[in-house]
């Protein structure tokens, strides 16, 4: 898949989690470039609303937005069946965007045990199943792009994300392993690590987010989904393995690159040169996060002591 044919009028994209947030913005960004879009999500009403919003950005009268209501994390055979339907209607998938996700925050002992399982099902298996359903055709055609939308919480474990972070970390392991398998077939994987983004999911998460997590999150800003989508789509089309947003995102990706693939020699050299500096900066960040956690703990203990005295 070259930049030219990814952006061609007859290119077929599937976006899971496409009814809202980053997923919907990615669908809009691709539609603006002439793609045919299949939106996949659970809520049919939200899907139909998203379809109307995406269709406003058509650049020609041949473009189509298809909606499929399915839970991508529950049953592989069902996911395989609906993706087959999509391919029959709009042709083979040129790019799969795995954006279906769920965020839950809370202290480890406060998060219900079944929530850990739910997050792994939605955030990890919800990406495995659609990918499994398109990979054979992509290999036969010797072309394709697969995108996994992780999170900065998939690069660094933070207070309050003991259930969420592991499910997003898992995507990187999948992406690195898969990329090594499918690169000879001219198929490229991109892992996106967006920061906090102003989406319905973030608004819902903020209702129960621990104070420590809120204070740590406030050390970096909140991005807009359109801004994030533009960067992610650009990186996926170019075949970049990592996709990050802003200076903090770039630093975090370089710092946590480990054994991940590089797109160019230049990228690898930049990581080598900046690693020491970024590690120094990161230690200051980690120190400030630990300080926030300690401060909150002390305040709670003082508050409890004051209540007892009363």
Summarize the model shown:
This protein has 310 residues and is α/β, with parallel strands linked by helices. The chain contains eleven helices and seven strands. Strands 3-2-1-4-5-6-7 form a seven-stranded parallel β-sheet, with helices on both faces.
Number of helices: 11
Question: What fraction of residues sit in β-strands?
Answer: 5-15%
Main β-sheet, spatial strand arrangement: 3-2-1-4-5-6-7
How many angstroms separate the termini?
Answer: 69 Å
Protein structure class: alpha/beta
Order of helices and strands: HEHEHEHEHEHEHHHEHH
Write down the overall mean pLDDT: 92
Helical amount among residues, as a percent range? 55-70%
- Shape assignment: globular
Tell me the radius of gyration: 20 Å
Biggest sheet statistics: 7 strands, parallel
The count of strands amounts to: 7
List low-confidence stretches: 1-9
């Amino acid at each position: 898949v070259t930049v030219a044919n990814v952006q061609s009028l007859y290119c077929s994209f599937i976006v899971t989690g496409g009814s809202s947030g980053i997923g919907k913005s990615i669908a809009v960004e691709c539609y603006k470039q002439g793609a045919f879009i299949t939106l996949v999500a659970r809520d049919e009403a939200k899907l139909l609303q998203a379809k109307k919003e995406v269709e406003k950005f058509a650049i020609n009268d041949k473009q189509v937005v298809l909606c499929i209501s399915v839970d991508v994390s529950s049953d592989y055979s069902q996911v395989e069946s609906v993706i087959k339907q999509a391919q029959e209607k709009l042709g083979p998938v040129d790019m799969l965007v795995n954006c279906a996700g769920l965020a839950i925050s809370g202290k480890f002992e406060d998060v219900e045990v079944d929530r850990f399982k739910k997050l792994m099902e939605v955030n990890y298996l919800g990406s495995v199943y659609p990918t499994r359903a398109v990979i054979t055709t992509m290999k036969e055609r010797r072309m394709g792009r697969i995108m996994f939308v992780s999170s900065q919480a998939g690069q660094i474990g933070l207070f309050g994300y003991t259930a969420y972070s592991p499910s997003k970390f898992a995507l990187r392991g999948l992406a690195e392993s898969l990329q090594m398998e499918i690169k000879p077939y001219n198929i490229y994987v991109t892992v996106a690590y967006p920061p906090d983004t102003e989406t319905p999911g973030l608004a819902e998460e903020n209702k129960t987010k621990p104070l420590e997590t809120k204070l740590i999150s406030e050390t970096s800003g909140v991005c807009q989904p359109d801004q994030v989508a533009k960067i992610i789509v650009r990186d996926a089309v170019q075949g970049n393995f990592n996709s990050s947003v802003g200076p903090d995102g770039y630093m975090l990706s370089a710092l946590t690159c480990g054994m991940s693939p590089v797109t160019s020699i230049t990228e690898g050299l930049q990581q080598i040169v900046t690693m020491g500096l970024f590690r120094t900066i990161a230690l200051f960040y980690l120190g400030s996060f630990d300080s926030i956690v300690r401060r909150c703990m002390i305040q709670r203990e003082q508050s409890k002591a004051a209540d007892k005295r009363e």
